[in-house]
Amino acid sequence: MGIAELDIVLKSLPAGERKLFDRIFHVSVSTGRLNPPATMHHWIEQHFGSVAATSNQKVVKVTNLVTFEGALFNSLRTGRPIEAREKLDVTAQIVQGTQGDPLQNPHRDTPEDIFGRVEGKHCITGSNIAKYDGLHGIVIFREHNPLLFSEEQIIDYLDTAWRWAEKAHHSDPEAKYFTLIWNCLWRAGASLLHGHAQVMLARDMHYAKVEGLRQAALRYQAEYGSNYFADLYQVHFSLGCALEKEGIKVIASLTPIKENEILLLAPEFNLSLKERIYEALACFRDRLHVFSFNLFLATAPLSPAPESWDGFPVLVRLVDRGDLESRASDIGSMELYNSSVIGSDPFELARLLKRALSGQ
After folding, report:
1. How far apart are CA 12 and CA 41, in angstroms?
2. Domain C-terminal end among 181, 203, 225
3. Does one domain contain both 191 and 218?
4. Residue 254 DSSP code
5. Could you tell me if 255 and 213 are in contact, meaning their C-beta atoms sit under 8 angstroms apart?
6. How many CB atoms lie within 10 A of CB 57?
7. b/e 147-178 (16+ beta carbons within 10 angstroms → b)
């Protein structure tokens, strides 16, 4: 079974699990029909396998009723022709792109934060020269190629980022809302190919989408007397789209922002979370052959805040940003203003995650 059969899978759920699913998600199914001229048949067969595959297309729409994130699934879209392509040697492109870049010698070519640098075994921090926020730093990897990472390196990057957050908070106690982002390579929005993550600490309130999620979760708690994140995991688990390992909940999202989105939910910023982040990244790279991705991490405030963060986990989101050889953007007006259009299958992603996290 896959996402195209979600409506069928839902009918087989026990009543309690179906009720919980319907509390969080709405699913609708439609059929796209067309009648191509005979002159197109050969072209359609080349790109989509058969004319019949395009004549009746099943589209599954999933909407999160709590957060109003939504996704439209049509597996046929993964085969659509993309003309703006260029054949690349990715490794050579990265090597060429990191030659002479300012991150090669961070002590000389990057500024430091007013509270100094934080240094790890495999990375060092600098201050971002064009800031998103008042406290905005970069974690610069000693390994230039962002795709050459080990578990030890990923843990060190995350540890160093957290120590940066603690120092930044000490320098400005009013800044307490922490996020980390890693835009890997050009498809993901990286302006420099040299491996690096970005860290931020905000004042007054968390960043807009994190705050929106917090408020949505509190409304859910008030209405149903249940933790939203626990129920979100349970719904995905009942469908085979989630697993738990050493206290970390791992979800193949039913409403991904783009292809192959993974959510990780943790009670705290601990070693197990860092290990699971590495395993998810390694699954992307080694099993799905995803080389460009966005990773996002957000925590509750580093010190007491006036608003409630009860039940809010350490949240990690990881998403595939598409083929590095394509010059066409994977995000258009649909994703910006409507619902995300998805060609990947969360059920298949979950199967790969289960094998990866079990070491199979």
Report:
1. 38
2. 203
3. no
4. S
5. no
6. 17
7. bebeeebbbbbbbbbbebbebbbeeeeebbbb
Sign of the alpha-carbon dihedral angle for 329, 333, 334, 340: positive
Q: Three-state DSSP class for 192?
A: coil
Total structural domains within the chain: 2
Residue 109 lies in domain: 100-203
178: left (phi over 0), alpha (psi -120 to 50) or beta: beta
Matching residue, tokens 């990472």: 149
Question: What is the Cα 244 distance to its own chain's centre?
Answer: 18
Q: How far is CA 231 from CA 22, 62, 281, 284, in A?
A: 11, 17, 25, 26
Cα distance between residue 189 and residue 166, in whole Å: 27
Low-confidence ranges of the chain (pLDDT < 70): 78-88, 95, 97-98
* CA atoms of 29 and 13, how far apart (whole Å): 18
Same domain membership, residue 315 and residue 248: yes
Task: Give a yes or no: residue 343 inside a domain.
Answer: yes
Q: What is the pTM of this model?
A: 0.93
Edge-to-edge strand ranges of the sheet holding 123-127? 123-127, 135-141, 196-203, 175-184, 293-298, 314-320, 262-266, 248-252, 242-245
In a domain, 91, yes or no: no
pLDDT of 102 reads 85
pLDDT digits (tens, 9 = 90+) for 277-286: 999 999 999 9
Last residue of a domain, one of 203, 237, 256: 203
Beta bridge partners of 85: 326
Q: Does residue 288 contact residue 355 with C-beta atoms inside 8 Å?
A: no
CATH number of the domain that 104 lies in? 3.30.428.10
Distance, CA of 345 to CA of 320 (rounded, Å): 12
Q: Residues, the chain, total?
A: 360
